[in-house]
């Protein structure tokens, strides 16, 4: 029967629709950039772009970790808390120790917190949403207890190099962000581990029966998310040369937004780092454009909210269409 | 058997139905007539056009040309609501029961009678009772649907169709997940519906069931009607021949193993797990061991326990002559050379929106080269060898697994198993819902694999198949191996032993209680 089965009956229209679904987000970014450049040509100025890069590096780096978690079918609400913990840790240690030591300890703390998330989700089998909501509270609480809600100011020039240093105008933090995205994107797309992330998100039971250590893969994604939040926290501490608990309570929403707007599916199994990069670019362009055009901050939130909803509606529109038109006929079972 | 039917009113009349998809003709000039009180069988390989035909009748898809009439009413096509209003109901293989709701709520789903805005409980119970009488069912209205057996859930679905006044019921693979007893019960229900003037379209790969219950059988091949005859004029062989295009298959089954050489490849002792109790089992290299048993006999649990997929309470395992600790995960089992092809291909075996080659590589993405990036191109080249062995066309290695037929999906999983160095393959229901051509290929491949000195333990609800394609048959009931039959045993023996064991086990629990 396989001999007579056609190799493809997919119409060009369907292929076009799929291509739009996959790459439409790139077009959206191009349109947005074009619109804002026309309204305010200063947007494309080298200095402005470099500032955006440095400003958005923490969110973008956390977005990398979140992308891993979301592709496994999970969710990480605790990245904001881990980010604050690591920023405070870096600043507290950085007052007396060398920046390298402070940063390393802080990033390790983030990874350990992430691994703890992984354990709660895979070992204790708590729903990821609830698990990371819980650990988020625990981590924030621990940070407050340890610091007594005090800010730490680092008065040591080398501490600020990572966050504020530049080479030919390009911020180090932006370089680090790009490097991490390239590495993380490569790992996800081209290594057995990365493909296992997709496998677990696509069908956890099939992956387990096929011999994938699903708990380890899922757990690792949370550890990576924690690690990324740690790096982001360190960058912020270095940028501000200080840190305090509750640095940015809304950060977790920005991180989720860049991942979702990029088109990584919340149901798991689908997504990519380049998508998150596009998501960051869209959000950053928008926010910077608003500032350049003097749009009220209150309106900014409204528009961001609309964009998140619009992005999800685009990504998943076929789910609404499918049941009415019948399931798409498969290629062989006609 | 079918006397009298020809005088009854025509329920469904399909004339010159044609449907094409880009590059393929799904239906070509299909005509058929179903009368009230008739059970109309529709058989054909996967891809023969059965699904398209059913979907066209139910209005899920629109035909290119041709007409569909229901009780004389011309249906425009492509309008599911109108088709439903005209009296068509479809019972899918995957049931649409809401497990959390009561039997009554499931039967009257979406159309509970109401009075003054409140549910009219009395009217609802009356409607439920009417539908229950039609199918001869005595499940209480308040029973939670999820706790009922698959067979009973299927009856609920039939009741739902009847309660909403549907008179033409199309059933897609109704016996696929039923044991022999339940099939008999379903067929009794169908005969009852005949007598009340309902028309049934019975679509199935289960040829024995089709021949038993249908009045008329039509064979489809490549979108065309090959032949329509009264069921009494068909034989199993004749049906297969018509489905495959005139080539009658060798019905002899899998050839026996050449020589079974000890020592055992695998020895299991004192295996206990929830619902499983196996005192001792030796598996020899080169043999195909079939697990036969009724639905719920514990075949799946047994295979899953051996594959490390479910936790066990106790058990000792020898691989070759070395005692090994019992695998606690499928990964550990794979390392011992034991690997499982799970019962539910789609839910447990494949990642449907990923390419076929990727699915072959699932769990061993590093196989294409430890230091090289994993690329689809490389996966396709790598998967070619294993997929060619199982008769999977290499052209389709780039296609997503979800777009394949059941037979091809099963071949993909088989290719995954044989692409690793394993010695014992556990195949749970490898032939469920797949067409005869693919089945034969799978049986041939499993024999070849076994002949290389590996062992195969497999199960099927189709006892005839188990008997014809195994070197040794283990009759399973209540999670135990209750009897062992040699090659060539009859289905009758297997059934007798399983029924006897099942009744004994029930008796035992009664006494214990």
Automatic annotation (TrEMBL), chain A:
GO terms for cellular component: plasma membrane. PANTHER family: ABC TRANSPORTER PERMEASE PROTEIN YPHD-RELATED-RELATED. It is found in: Cell membrane. This is ABC transporter permease. InterPro entries: ABC_transp_permease. The keyword Repeat does not apply. Keywords: Cell membrane, Membrane, Transmembrane, Transmembrane helix. Pfam families: BPD_transp_2. GO terms for molecular function: transmembrane transporter activity. It is a multi-pass membrane protein. Its main location: membrane. The chain crosses the membrane at residues 23-46, 52-70, 77-94, 100-122, 129-152, 172-193, 214-235, 247-266. The keyword Transferase does not apply.
From TrEMBL, chain B:
Keywords: ATP-binding, Nucleotide-binding, Repeat, Transport. It holds the Pfam family ABC_tran. Gene3D superfamilies: P-loop containing nucleotide triphosphate hydrolases. Residues 12-247, 260-503 form the ABC transporter domain. It comes from the Bacteria. SMART domains: AAA. The keyword ATP-binding applies. This is Sugar ABC transporter ATP-binding protein. It comes from Cryobacterium algoritolerans.
